[in-house]
Amino acid sequence: QVQLVESGGGVVQPGGSLRLSCIASGFTFSSCGMHWVRQVPGKGLEWVAFIWNDGNNKYYADSVKGRFTISRDNSKNTLYLQMNSLRAEDTAVYYCAKRDKSIPLLQGAHLDYWGQGTLVTVSS
Amino acid sequence: QSVLTQPPSVSAAPGQKVTISCSGSSSNIGNNYVSWYQQLPGTAPKVLIYANDKRPSGIPDRFSGSKSGTSATLGITGLQTGDEADYYCGTWDSSLSAVVFGGGTKLTVL
Questions:
Q1: Taking CB atoms and an 8 Å cutoff, what residues of chain A touch B88?
Q2: Looking at the partner chain, which of B35, B39, B102 has a beta carbon nearest the beta carbon of A108?
Q3: Average pLDDT per consecutive 10 residues, chain B (110 residues; last block may be shorter)
Q4: Residue of B nearest to A114 (CA)
Q5: CA–CA distances in Å: residue A22 to residues A34, A81, B27, B41
């Protein structure tokens, strides 16, 4: 069965960096685009970034553009989110999610499997 | 402020029907496919509806989706206490080149 397991969350000071990982199993990782979505506890979902299956194209929310970098290693079935220049408002649970190919690329947001999330806290 | 607009909360009695609206624009809902997600307390979101009106396997037909113009609607019939959750609509925004979500709707089954 499909599994997505995030790791790398923790407490970091403002201005610091953190790298999140998401290990995928149960599907052909190299064939699927992947998303990062975050959620401030008690608040709504905020999309963060998306990467194509081959890693050649990436998209970012304006709130993280220039600070966060999404990447992947298809040989390791692993998705990454490098987060730099962290701010208090980046505090959230970060989910990785798999794009389902039933919707044409860039015409919807069918995220068919989600990880359990990893909490990032930015605080001094 | 979310790009897609949902009511903050809805409520209904067990066994009744409820609808949740999601309003957007031509750059998102108007020209792209809408998905709906259910998030039970303390868990990750789960897709209920994709491509406007399709249900993934395992999702009961009590859940339905529709789209008209720049708005979408999630319908839930035969409400159960286990349906109490937050519900989110989502789609791609072609102008922003980004996934956009609604602010979420909290469903209370009275």
A1: 44-45
A2: B35
A3: 95 97 97 97 96 96 97 97 97 96 96
A4: B44
A5: 10, 9, 31, 22
